[in-house]
Amino acid sequence: SDLRNDFLKFSSKDLAIEGPEFILQVDRILELYKNIPLDSVEARNSFNAALDSLYADFLSYKSPFLIKIPNRLSEELKNALNDTSLSPETNSEKLRLIEKARKVVYDRVNGDTFIRYQQYQRKERNRMMKKLGMRGRGTI
Fold it and tell me: Is 21 within 8 Å of 65 (Cβ atoms)?
């Protein structure tokens, strides 16, 4: 949607793009894998490839988009994602931990980046109203 794209554009300028991007990538993983059995080799390989990408993009110390989550959760998540066993319990634990990390990141984005985005939108609206000579008379 346009609002989501506008928010992502703002986040990249605000140097906070990793949070919204992490949330979107986790949402894609959950949409694809949360409610399907990972009982085939192909499904497990695809699931693990998606998790490898998530790790490389947001959890590796080498990542330029390293997300900020509590150290304990970060270590649990890294250990789970590095676990190569293919048991259903391991896969469930991986999903549980990425959901937990998503919630932490979402709360931070919602409480920090989104507030700055709303302030930015108000400033832009006021600037546009001033430019149009509409100081305080209605909304655009």
Answer: yes
